[in-house]
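Same chain as my last thread, 204 residues:
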Amino acid sequence: MGILSKKYVLPDLPYKYDALEPAISEEIMRLHHDKHHAAYVNGANAAFEKLDKGRAAGFQGVDVKAILRDLSFNASGHMLHSLFWTNMSPKGGGKPGGSLADQINTDFGNFDSFELELSSAAKTVEGSGWGMLAYDPLSEQLLTLQVEKHQNLAVQEAIPLLVVDVWEHAYYLQYRNDRGAFVDKWWDTISWSDVESRFGKAKK
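reply #2:
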């Protein structure tokens, strides 16, 4: 018997479903976490099961490309959503401090310029995807990124610090097709202590 892949588990939200209101409604949080995030966990685990069967069969007659495509999509969706929940807090908003604030000022000029850049990135993602703040250890700088779907346009080795989900399921029930209004309100939910902690670990 071959080695079996470990399976992903849907994490609990770190706060109540209604804790981010009025920025994000309880209805959206329930559907987003319990249905959409759960679907990515299940999809990734299904890909693992197919991969395990392929390994046992020596990959004879197995479409490895399709399996790995599904794994990349669903596992990335699971990872980004897990980050998204912890990036937010009922006591969120404001501005970061400490070394993260210093790095933002160095790389973007000031916080307002950074906020404009990340907001613009999130609002203009083509199709479904994410806006992201990441740390690039090679150039030792912060980057704003667009992620299409969950895995496209990624910068390899860049470490995600802060993400905003701009798939329609993240906002449509409350904001309809006004993605921009959702992104603007999302800034009120950011847990800068979480982002600062991730930045500190990324720098090491």
